[in-house]
Design brief:
Organism: Saponaria officinalis (Common soapwort)
Largest sheet: none
GO biological process, one term: RNA modification
CATH architecture of one domain: Alpha Horseshoe
Strand content: under 5%
GO molecular function: RNA binding
InterPro entries: E_motif, PPR_At4g14850-like_plant, PPR_rpt, TPR-like_helical_dom_sf
Shape: elongated
Distance between the termini: 112 Å
Protein name: Pentatricopeptide repeat-containing protein
CATH class of one domain: Mainly Alpha
Structural class: mainly alpha
Amino acid sequence: MVFSEMGCPDIYSWTTLLSACTKLGEITSAYQLLDEMPLRRVEPWNAVITGCAESGRSSVAFDLFRRMQLSGLRHDNYTFACVLSLCSGGLYCFGSQVHCSVFKSGFLGWTSVVNSLISMYFNCEGASDACKAFETTDEMVHNVITYNAVINGLVNMDRNKEALNLFKKMLNFGLKPTELTFLTLMSSGLDLIVCSQLHAQAIQSGYESSIAVGNAAMAMYFDHGQLDAARMIFEKLDEKDVVSWNTVIAGYAQNRNAISAITEFMEMQRRGIKADEYTLGTLITYAEMLELVQMFYAFVLKNGIILITEVVNALVSAFVNKGDITSAYQIFRSMPFKNQITWNAIISGFLSNGQPSRALELFLLMQSSKTDPDIYTLTIVLSICSSSSALEHGKQVHAYILRHGFLKDTFLGNGLITMYAKCGYLDRSCRVFDSMTVRDIVSWNAIISSFAQYGEGTKAVHCFKKMQSESSIKPDNTTFTAVLSACSHAGLVYDGIQIFNSMVNEYGFVPGVDQFSCLIDLLARAGYLDETERLIENKSSDIDDIVLWALFSACAAYGNVRLGRIVAGMLLQTAEKSDAAIYVMLSNIHANAGQWEDAAHVRELMKTVGVMKQPGCSWFKA
């Protein structure tokens, strides 16, 4: 009414009215006023766009931005900065289009626009575009906010050295770092020397009394195990907030100093500072003894914190980890609200405590409670199905994965391969493997191990070669153990030797106990015991007792007396004390070869060195 009575409202009046309409949610009225407004100025449009952005009406703001373009009204730096900030929500393509408009309109010389542009690209996971925008704009446009945006973006992508170099450039350019600059760099995981220099620079820049910087510096030193340095900062803080106390408690707890963590917690209580869910979650998570978990549980009950889901989840996990599944389940049942983390903790708890069937029951109960399982839940349940050969439940989980589009997750695909193989359905393992769009080393290891488990040596070797030729993933120790085991059980001597040699010569692996055992077993099964002798001569310093025992057993099985004597000697040299089993097996090797005098000599030698064979016994009484 007042506005309509104004003779000729100026631009500021129109802008004020439009801003008020937008904040009150009267978008239709704002549109109508924009159409009625006789003045063709950008300010009122900016007011509506900004108001929509601040009130969460992004789609309306974008629509207004397009209407401005269509109406021929030229955007200004405020328009571009606001719309680019809205694109930070993941609208990479639209943000790139706005970038083109910014370039064509000549607004890359405005600091606010450049800052919004850089932040937009980083938030949309376009780090290379963000860095390019920074590097191609005039240095005179950059301010401390610009540098902070790039430093923060680089740190979030673990490009910490680049972030540090940019920080140095910022200092050389004469810009003073802000609190945010130091908070970002201190959390980046740089080495201790650099961290100390950062802390010194923060003090030099006047942030010694800053609680936020002090808390970040404490966390930084605790991460490097520098407890004394962190403690000194804590004591020098003029004011300590709950984050300060949480940082020092968490720092001691993570560095396995439970006494200091509990002492600080008690001091925190004495000073009247109320512990929050992070304080208790940390103490419960890092409690090393069951008694400590019980003590914190009592504190939670006494102080009425039992209703905080994060704290109760920590309690359930802590009792599970300490083997007290009964207490964990009691707390679980008493919870009024259970989220995915709660269910995952108790389901994995029953599995790890040897009760897979109970864990499976809880999974079914979880579904009926209308809490959707996540990828971690399904991975746990597939492990349960694998360990208990629960095929029908495994198939139901598979169906759930397909219905909800989870098969693209590599972890679940790997779990399905293993589950079907352990339940006796190798063909289904193969079908799952073939259907996976993304495979990692675990995927290849799972299918190769499945072939090995079923004695399908040729298929295991074929799969291994396919991995080498079609995949950029390199085999690891588990891969070689699986494929060599498959070769051993299938008698594929040539393939086994070739793969073993490629492991050493092509991939640079030092063969471990498992690989040596597989190769020796392979050669022994095929009757190539002489080759195994040459192998242990060349690798005598790397041969483990387990490998020697595998070879010794092969000598006994295939009646190779000469090599059996050599291996027995090697075992006796490495044994801390004379082992009766070595003498007994060597005696049996001679006896089986009809060399009775040699067998008797070995038995006499046992008596001479004072080694007694453990007598056999039976649990059955006559």
